[in-house]
Design brief:
Blueprint (H helix, E strand, L loop, with lengths): L7 H4 L9 H5 L36 H15 L5 E5 L2 H9 L5 E7 L2 E11 L13 E5 L14 E5 L9 H11 L7 E8 L2 E10 L3 H5 L9 E3 L11 E4 L7 H10 L4 H11 L2 H13 L6 H4 L3 E5 L6 E5 L19 H6 L3 H14 L6 H19 L4 H30 L12 E3 L4 E4 L5 E7 L5 E7 L3 E11 L2 E16 L7 E6 L10 E14 L3 E28 L3
Parallel strand pairs: 1-6
Antiparallel strand pairs: 1-2, 2-3, 3-4, 4-5, 5-7, 6-7, 8-9, 8-10, 10-11, 12-20, 13-16, 14-15, 15-20, 16-20, 17-19, 17-20, 18-20
Helix pairs in contact: 5-13, 7-8, 9-12, 13-14
Length: 568
């Protein structure tokens, strides 16, 4: 995706365009600001401007929390605000050295002035920018000034949207999740000045903390975990909120449920520790919106809350700024431990397909998506008019592009669902041919998948490892409960084994399950066999693969079949 960043010339502007301050006042004004702080290379005491809370937070007040929720609802439906952030020289220099260490600053929005707001730079690998560029910022209003709120919110993020030049993806996607009851941060637009520098149009999102939890849960004492960058539940996730010892005992229980080898026991264990219904819906929306960088696909951009009332985990989407661009197959596999383990269970896999169908009726429809989209575009028009013409053209062009991609994704997903494989039909021998194979390369195309035609007209599926890695041919089938055997013929030429927990050399398996069958070195045609059980109706993905450091393997598609096995 094309990256967007404010040019140096734009960053150096010191005020909004002359003559437009009256217009600016219509959606928050610019307030009265002190002279912008100047930067300096002189050192200062390291801890002088570090943001430290003044006192313990006040006890939870449900009535006040409800009032704050109503205030924030009105804010996200209202005009676009214009922020002016003022940092002292010491605070600015601290953020230059340690961007994640919060410092105190002053925030002006219209006639409102917020003092001692804790501010730090945010952003991961793709969106991180320094404080003297166009940084993404986190603003905590009550960390240093207990009780201070911004329209009912105590924590917000100002995202620079360098990975979404339209500034629309977060807004459209958060509405989708909220529409189906998935806890999600709301989003709108904002204009931003930092020490007098006009940084243009940002995306404003609410923060993940107890104020956020109040909107979705009657009990906010559970553990809220930050998934971090490319981290899964078996790693030391940071706890953002929660009461009691930070032992990760709940995460360990979730991991133990995912690790059950028996699918029936795993299903029952997951039902106890995971809100499966909501997780299926969450995953289906991740796929529909093309979220390649979320938890199911990439173990990234998520929060995880353990509801103290139900004892179950709920996944919360985050970082939805690169959507509607990949055209993912609805049947693609998952990398996240919870997603991979959950959808290996046929019952939950079928729930996933049913939810895709339901979402494509509402809210993942062109009508609903564009209603949200067009309303946000209309709401930001007064703010956009304050930007230079070239910035307006760039944002409007990117906005038109993502609008087209949204329409295309809905049509693509509908076509995929309509083309979903029917339940497999077995012959009198209890056998069925496996066809409709498609190439599936991974690890930067380390293994190339090629369809070859021999001199005698026979078709072969070739897998060639130019460097260490994996590649495969795959097909999907729907099966009733029972025991099954997949088999097919393969041969190899100079295949060097690669240590891999899912399998070695040339072999066949069901996606998500390791295999023992393997061919390596140079071997002529041999029959490969993989047995498995289906505890319920569901869909599986059959994988004919090569996992190798080097070498070439072939499968004969004419021999690839699935056979029903008698009960044990």
């Amino acid at each position: 995706m094309t990256l967007f960043a404010t040019s140096p010339a734009k960053v150096l502007r010191t005020q909004f365009p002359a003559g437009l301050l009256l217009v600016l006042s219509l959606f928050g004004g610019c307030g009265r600001a002190d002279p912008p702080a100047q930067t300096s290379s002189k050192p200062r005491p390291a801890a002088a401007e570090v943001a430290k809370p003044r006192s313990e937070p006040a006890p939870h007040d449900p009535a006040k929390a409800k009032r704050h929720a109503l205030e924030s609802d009105a804010f996200f439906a209202g005009p676009i605000p214009a922020f002016e952030i003022q940092l002292s020289r010491a605070s600015f220099q601290s953020l230059e050295r340690e961007p994640r260490l919060a410092v105190p600053g002053t925030v002006l929005v219209g006639t409102n002035r917020y003092e001692r707001v804790a501010i730090h730079v945010k952003g991961a690998a793709g969106s991180s920018r320094s404080v003297d560029d166009n940084p993404a910022l986190t603003l905590n209003f009550d960390k240093l000034n207990p009780g201070q709120r911004f329209h009912g919110l105590d924590k917000i993020h100002l995202n620079n949207s360098v990975q979404d030049p339209s500034r629309m993806s977060e807004i459209v996607c958060s509405d989708q999740y909220l529409s189906v009851g998935i806890p999600t941060a709301r989003a709108t637009h904002a204009l931003l000045k930092l020490n007098g520098r006009d940084l243009g149009l940002y995306v404003l999102k609410e923060g993940y903390n107890k104020t956020f939890l109040d909107r979705f849960f009657t009990n906010r004492t559970g553990n809220l975990y930050d998934g971090g960058f490319l981290r899964d539940i078996d790693q030391d996730l940071e706890r953002d909120s929660g009461e009691g010892p930070d032992t990760h005992a709940d995460l360990k229980q979730l991991y133990a449920a995912c690790s059950q080898s028996d699918l029936t026991r795993r299903r029952d264990a997951l039902r106890k520790i995971l809100d499966v219904d909501r997780f299926v819906t969450y995953t289906a929306l991740q796929v529909l919106t093309d979220d390649w960088d979320g938890y199911p696909k990439n173990r990234n951009n998520y929060r995880l809350y353990h509801d103290a009332d139900t004892g179950r985990f709920i996944f919360i989407p985050h970082g939805m700024d690169q959507m509607f661009s990949r055209g993912y197959s609805l049947a693609e596999g998952f990398e996240g431990i919870v997603a991979r383990s959950t959808f290996q269970i046929p019952e939950f896999r079928e729930m996933y397909w049913q939810q895709l169908s339901a979402l494509l009726n509402n809210p993942f429809t062109t009508e609903h998506l564009l209603a949200t989209f067009d309303a946000a575009v209309e709401r930001r028009k007064p703010a956009l008019a304050l930007l230079p013409r070239d910035e307006q053209r760039g944002i409007n062009g990117a906005t038109a592009d993502i609008r087209r991609r949204i329409i295309a994704r809905v049509e693509n997903a509908r076509a995929q669902l309509a083309g979903r494989p029917k339940p497999i039909a077995f012959n009198a021998k209890g056998e069925a041919a496996l066809d409709n194979w498609r190439p599936h390369n991974t690890e930067a195309d380390a293994v190339r998948s090629t369809l070859l035609t021999e001199k005698d007209g026979r078709k072969l599926y070739q897998l060639a490892a130019g460097q260490p890695g994996a590649g495969s041919w795959r097909t999907r089938v729907r099966l009733p409960p029972g025991r099954y055997r997949i088999q097919g013929s393969g041969k190899t030429d100079k295949v060097a084994l690669l240590s891999d927990e899912r399998g070695k050399g040339l072999g066949i398996r069901v996606s998500g399950v390791a295999r023992q069958n393997q061919l390596f070195g140079t071997q002529d045609w041999q029959t490969l066999v993989f047995d498995f059980a289906m505890p319920g109706d569901g869909e599986i993905e059959v994988v004919a693969e090569l996992r190798a450091a080097s070498g070439t393997g072939w499968f004969d598609p004419a021999t690839m079949l699935i056979r029903r096995l008698p009960p044990p």
